[in-house]
Amino acid sequence: MLRKVGFSKVWHWGCQGVRSTASRYASSSSGSVSKRICIVGAGPAGFYAAQYILKHLDNSQIDIVERLPVPFGLVRFGVAPDHPEVKNVINTFTKTAENPRVRFLGNLSLGKDFTLDELRDRYHAVLLTYGADKDRQLNIPNENLTNVLSAREFVAWYNGLPGFENLNPDLSGSTLTLLGQGNVAVDVARIVLSGADLLKNTDITEYALEALSRSNIKKVLLVGRRGPLQAAFTIKELREMLKLPNCVTTWRPDDLHDLEEALPNLPRPRKRITELMMKSLSEQTAQQTSSVNSSGSNKFQPIFFRSPVNVIGTDRVEAIEYAVNELVDNRAIPTDEREIIPTDLVCRSIGYKSVNVDSALNFDERNGCVSNASGRVLKQTLTGSDQTIDDIEDKYEKGLYASGWLATGPTGVILTTMNNSFGVADLICKDFANNVIRVKEAKPGLDAIGKRVVTWEGWKLIDAEECRRGEPKGKPREKIVKVDEMLSIAEGQ
């Protein structure tokens, strides 16, 4: 439910003081004082950390605070709608959230509803996991022309992230260019080229489904600055593109000419994806030789060794000018050669970055993440006799941690985030066990009197309503995209 009262009037902790038989880290402090931990961010990083702490730290209570009224972060708003199996992890997260030692506090924002100093005063430990929700820029001329978007915005649009429902990408042209070759870019390519019929039974938003049903895009270019051996997409995503109905994948043979020679020395995962590229190229050559007509099909074309240097157009994008690169020591080095490739729509997919939401946080603006060492947040002002981080004695903010993309940058998949969060959660458990974090007195947790807070029961009302709206359409859910509407439902209105 949603409440406008202090938490002390709403919440009743269960199992306080119960010692878990699974615990590895028994506290040396009095068992009567619960270890109170706040996790800021209800995405995979936050839930995995909570899961680990519940299992390994006895007599602990966890608040998971989320700026949106709904949980699950990138699992809900980042995973492609045609990958429902990846979203099954929500079942595990739900079990964590329904543990009596955990409470979910939705619609509360760090830097807006409370400060970092307030959190640190009201909890024994604070773990920041609020992710990366801004885009890295190309920093090239005309980057802000109409029809130049980011893949992050496009994904947020079709996945129903509040604030992006009115993005209305222009799909009237025939060619989409994706700048970047990670799995996010491939997801966008697949969604655009799948067509509405293949997506109508997923949890894609209805407005995106309608727009895609009217789309004129027939060709998607996937452009990377390095070569096929450095492509960031995984074999699963490439295989899906190669098997996509009514879609032909075309390669530039010159991009792949030296793959066979490199094959024997590649590690197994890279070898498998390279063999798949070579197989696809050979099939493409056979089709061209036999004059197979694929003119009516959609086209997916990976392009390598190209870096965008200029967006060409007046009112809107018309083409991209690229520098032709050479690979030197695994780095893309631009040559003087240029290539111009027409396009009607551009989505850059060159990475996300986090933002600093509180001035008290030691934040690396250049890299877009919290300054940390293995998850422990570093002090803004370091003290010690030496300037190298390993020799500075007093370098960590006690009881303050970061994990997930906020700490590492936007790398890896959900499994990568799980391993990172488990590692940071383990540090938290050890710091309690070793009295690095001293539990001398009870901590009150957040005071949100007057705030519109969505509880887990409130989320369940939103969840049930989304499932109800999706059922007549044959969809698992129809996501609600307006925050005010979410809040009204959570209030039972």
Report what the structure shows.
One of its GO terms (molecular function) is oxidoreductase activity. It comes from Aedes albopictus. It is found in: Mitochondrion. By secondary structure, this protein is of the alpha/beta class. The chain has 2 domains: 35-133 and 354-453, Rossmann fold, CATH 3.40.50; 136-351, FAD/NAD(P)-binding domain, CATH 3.50.50.60. The protein has helices spanning 44-56, 73-77, 89-97, 116-122, 151-159, 183-194, 196-199, 206-213, 235-242, 259-262, 268-289, 405-408, 414-433, 456-470, 483-490, and strands at 2-3, 35-40, 60-66, 102-106, 125-128, 134-135, 148-150, 175-179, 219-223, 247-249, 298-303, 306-313, 317-328, 331-342, 345-348, 352-353, 363-364, 369-370, 372-373, 376-383, 394-402, 453-454. It has a 7-stranded mixed beta sheet, sandwiched between helices. Strands 7-15-8-9-11-10 form a 6-stranded parallel beta sheet.
